[in-house]
Every structure is written in structure tokens, then in C-alpha cells.
Amino acid sequence: MSKKMAIALGLTAALLSGCSAGPQAEPQGKTTLKVMYYSEDSFYFQYGMLFSALYPDIELEVVSTNNVKPEDGETINDATAKFIRERKPDVLMLSASQYKQWAGEGKLLDLEARAAQDKFDLAGIVPGILEYIRGLSDGKLYGMVPSFYSRAVYYNKDLFEKYGVPLPEDRMSWESLLQLASRFPTGGEPGERVYGLKPDYMSDLNSLTRQIGGSLGLSYFNVSNMHMTANSDSWIKAAETADKAIKGGYLYLGEDQTNQMYTTYEEYLLQDPFIGGRTAMTIDSSYLVSQIKEAQEVLKDKSLRNWDVVTMPVDPKNPNVTDTVSVDQILAIDSQSPNVDAAWKFLQYVNGDEFARVKSKANSGGFPVRTKYINDDDGHNLQAFYALTPTEETVFKDYDKMPNEAFTEIMNTIAAELSEAGKGQQTVAEALNRIQDKGQLILDGKGKGAEETASDTEK
User: What structural domains and CATH numbers belong to the chain?
Assistant: First the structure.
């Protein structure tokens, strides 16, 4: 039996033993409910096994999206729409932009009316999540998300006290956060020294520039008029801020992780520089909470004890929103579905209290959407993960409305040019100007070949 299957079976048993009231009245006869999801295995691990245990009269058929790939010149949204028309799932899994489009075209069932009719509790759901989804669909609710992923800034209180640095606060700007990080030492051997901040999983110039730009609502392009916007003053300032921080020596960039081998589980846990007490701050998901607790059990006195979290950095002009909360997996019901009742029963269940209670016991890096089950026995500020209202990702906004090949080429161009800037082979302003020019050729349908031809002609 696989580890995932064992976990899922355990959660099923926990749910069945924990229910004080049995399942709701079942539909008459057997109903086949077609659900759109990545794959059958992942669906049953995430939702299906628990749902099937309580609702045996609803037969689930998973319509896998694994083979949804755009053809030449086609967008991912085009390919997804064709897939839905052909396979006709009852429950749809949509990205934010797909949900926005389908809701605007009247293709989704109004869930607000259904919730009111069945007295389904919407009040217990993270307010910012509902606000975000309604904002995508003109204030109406056509979709829901059972869970969400979020990041926050973790900090080591002992290191802040040791070096006399003020503690971070909720809703700081990136500039303020980096200023705090810069007050920690920058000397010493990579495997032993203290760092001010570990920015994220990727810590190169491209990644950090994207994080800073995203918090400010910047975008590399405007798909509506197919125009690049990469060399704006705001992008240049964001990239210069990132470049200065990286060159300042106070960011942890994984210098001591190259080909490192671990002979014990303790060594593996301590390789995380935050758990090992070598970074004053780190940006991570809720998964780090469980890793810290695991380390406290295994490492005892060697482990980090005195820590807390604050929200991700924000735009001071718009301090209550963030692009670091992911709710892209929006579940909705096709308004033309012949199985609306069964589909609504499924959405009620996976967004309900009992499902959230059970799933909260298996930390997978995300949170159940109900605030009641986002808690910490030690009083840490986990509200930092959902205090900000999600906003649409702007850095690559509407990328799924352009041909897939064009987007890939632009992504590669951004990575290559900022890599050159990171090595000091050009300034960040020069890099962004080159991204602007090369990206515009790509959007104009001329691409790399046309650019090389133009360059040869100039020579």
C-alpha cells in the first residue's frame, strides 16, 4: 500500500468515526458525477476517497486534464474550453482567469442561491477567499475552493534579540523587510554564519525581482494590446532593489547546499537554515510549521523554539492584498449539468466543516478554507497566512490568453537577461530594456529568428 493511500484511508476512518450525524439524504438511484481534475489518483487522494465513503450512491468519474495541451497557436484557455465541451464534466476545476471568463459568459451555476437554500455556512470560510472569488465574477459566487496555499515571513525571535534588531511586523514593504535583514552579520563561513533572510525556494535575481514586482502589482506584459511593459521605472526599481539585496550578502542563497549529503534524519532537519538557527527570517508555506514541530521532537534542545510569523511584504499603497495566496483551483458547476444536485452535494462536502476538520490533520503545505481549523496550540500568528485578501497574479497576468510558445519564449528571455545582470554582465536597467525589446518581437509574432536576422542586418 502506498504512503498516500494509507494516509487517505486513515483520514477516511477518522471522518467516519468522528461524524455525529450521518450523511445527508442520498439522491434516488445511482448518480454518475463527472469531475474534472488533474488525474484520478490525485483526485481520490485529495477528495474522492472521503466523499465516496459517505456518499456511496454517487458514482464518481474523474475526467483527467493531464492530456490538455494547447496546439500550435492555441492558448491553454482555448484547449481547456474544448476539453470541457467534449468531455462534459459536471464539476469543473478552473484557474482564476478561466473561472472569470466562464462566469462572465453565464456558464456556471449560482452557488450563492444554493447555499442560502440549504443554509450552507459561508460565514466560516476565510473572508478574503470569498471576497477574491466574488471579485472575479462581478460580486456573485459561482465557485469555491476547499483549500488554499499561502506564504508568510517566519522569524527567529532569539536572533533578533541577540543582534538588537526590531521584530518584523505585518504588512511591511519589501524595502522595510530587506532593511531589517541587512542589519544581521554578513561574515563567516557559509555553513556556519547567520543570514538576515532566506527569500524563497529560488533566490536568484529573476525570482526575487518577480516577488517584489508581484507585491506591487507589476506585469511584464499587457495581453489586451499585446504590449510589453518590462522596462517601466517601477520594474527597474524592483530589480535594482533585488540586485542590491543579493549583492549585500545578507540573503541566504543556498550557498552551502551544493551536493550536500545527509547521513541522519537530524542532519536533514538541520539543513534547513531557519530550523538550524542560521537565518533570522525565511519565507515559506505552512509546511514549515510542521517541519519546525517535527524538529522540536527529534532535535530537542538543538531546535528552533522561539519563532513567529508575519504577513508577506505588501505594496504600501495597497496594504491589504497579496499575490502570494494561491486559490487557482476553483471548483464550479457547469450550469448545463444534468447532475446539479449531486454536484452541489460534492461542493458542499469538500467546502464543509467536516472535510476541513479531517484534512487539517494532514499538513500538505496548504490550509483548509475554514478559519476554525487554522490554529496553533502555541499561539503563533497563523492569521498572517490569510489576513491579506488574495489578488490576481499580475507579473504574468493573462499569460494563458497568449499562445503557449510565445509565453514560454518570454519566460526564457526574462530568465536569461536577468541571469546576465545577476552576473554583472549588464545592468538591471539594460536587462529590462532587452526583455522589453525581445519580448515585443515575440508578441508581434516575429520571435527569436526575426530578432537574430535584424541583428545580423545591423552588423
Answer: 3-149+324-384 (3.40.190.10), 151-322 (3.40.190.10)
